[in-house]
Amino acid sequence: MDLPSGRSELPWSPEEAEQELYTAQREYRILQTYLASPTLWKDAWARFYRMVYRESAARLDAITEAFARALPAADPTESARRVLAWVQDFLYERDPSGLDFVPPLAAAFGRRGDCDSRALVMAAILEASGIDCVLMLSREYSHAMLAVDVPGGGQRFPFQGKEYLVAETTAKVGLGMIDSSQTDLSKWLGVELE
User: Fold this and answer.
1) DSSP state letter for 149
2) Which residue range forms the structural domain that includes residue 37?
3) pTM here?
4) What are the pLDDT digits (tens) for 45-74?
5) Rounded distance, CA 27 to CA 79, Å?
6) What CA–CA distance (Å, rounded) separates 147 from 163?
7) Nearest to 97 by CA among 11, 31, 21
8) How far is Cα of residue 19 from the mean position of the Cα atoms in its chain?
9) What is the pLDDT of residues 132-165, one digit of tens each?
10) What is the CATH number of the domain that holds 68?
11) pLDDT of residue 13
12) Which residue in 15, 29, 106, 192 is deepest, having the highest Cβ count within 10 Å?
């Protein structure tokens, strides 16, 4: 696997990928039940991503450990920049199976996925390095991003008393940059993953 620190041989487990996919499919069926509800869709959406993240984070240990050795521990902003650049290089792909989502393990090892897949991979790597992250979801913009608690300039996302720096995972833009058509922060839902 190509990492920012160079090529690394990491173990791939088809069994773990299958279990992760099963969890994502199960949670997606639950999510579909509540999406039309004017009051429950936000909770259902947050649950979907939390459950998938919890299923996936430990399965990404080999990748998070490889990154931990390569990231500058004393500079969380630079660490976030490096991981962001890595996920921005993924092939843009949506899962054709109906989930509209590539689970994080398959996304990381295949270097593919769309906005939410990339954001979850980035969150797992940064959280394992001690950097607090929040998933940003927007129904109105049909988009997901990550927000990270690091110093630096750019667009901030307020969540639970903190101001997180946004990380756009699908466009090759710098940390803190957001598309000008998506800056209405009231249209974003913050989801704590840990």
Assistant:
1) -
2) 2-191
3) 0.95
4) 999 999 999 999 989 999 999 998 889 999
5) 31
6) 9
7) 21
8) 19
9) 999 999 999 999 999 999 999 999 999 999 999 9
10) 3.10.620
11) 87
12) 106
